[in-house]
Design brief:
By secondary structure, the chain is α/β, with parallel strands linked by helices. Helix content is 38%, strand content 14%. The protein is built from seven helices and five strands; from the N terminus they run E-H-H-E-H-E-H-E-H-H-E-H.
């Protein structure tokens, strides 16, 4: 039995942009991935709305992805694969962060995973570093317009470049979510059910191609 930890934000949690609730397990990409992988794998969902890579939100500081990462890994060890998709919330106006700076936050998390694994479980998990989906073109009319301005659109389009560099430097598998999915027209940020399905299928194929299965 192999353990796959999915560490992310609201699009890993399964936020439904049409009603603000959570998609059922069989709709979320994590649940769909579990179905594709079968009983020899355990997919653990660790998505949190608003989670950043390493930035402290002045209102919800507990959503800093760095602070929870090692306790999370410890509670689920041994972990064989980590699928990490974070960075969208780092695009918020309040952080004034470029795509390159955000990728550095993702790199810090990658290094934390390796450091934890070296010390606590005796082997390093394979990390699939996912470059997040792009912010939709209508973000300024979204329910989340208070947090994101139009520059978030352009910055999100640069994610793949810098995340790929991070993956190469740190021996991760790189996966560009923007090649498979797009944000909903409802809020320009979260995924509709069909996009969750595409993401799960893309990641499943990525794992096959990388000989993880």
């Amino acid at each position: 039995m192999k353990t796959i930890l999915c560490y992310g934000d609201s699009n890993t949690y399964g936020f439904n942009p049409t009603n603000g609730m959570r998609y059922p397990k069989d709709v979320r990409w994590t649940g769909r991935l579990q179905k594709l992988l079968g009983d020899d794998y355990t997919v653990i969902e660790e998505g949190c709305n608003g989670r950043t890579t390493v930035f402290d939100d002045p209102v919800d500081g507990w959503k800093n992805g760095l602070f929870y990462l090692k306790p999370c890994l410890n509670s689920h060890k041994p972990v064989d694969v980590v699928i990490m998709m974070l960075g969208s919330n780092d695009l918020k106006d309040i952080f004034h962060a470029s795509a390159e700076k955000i990728s550095k936050g993702a790199e810090r998390l990658v290094q934390e995973i390796y450091d934890f694994a070296d010390n606590k479980q005796g082997f390093r998990p394979v990390i699939i570093l996912v470059s997040p989906p792009q912010i939709g073109p209508d973000i300024c009319n979204s329910a989340f317009h208070y947090a994101f301005d139009e520059t978030a659109i352009a910055r999100s389009k640069e994610f793949h470049k810098y995340y790929k560099e991070v993956a190469e430097r740190n021996h991760c598998i790189f996966f560009d979510a923007a090649e498979y999915v797009k944000a909903s027209e409802v809020d320009s940020l979260h995924l509709m059910p069909e996009e969750h399905e595409k993401l799960a299928e893309g990641l499943f194929q990525c794992m096959k191609d990388s000989e993880l299965l």
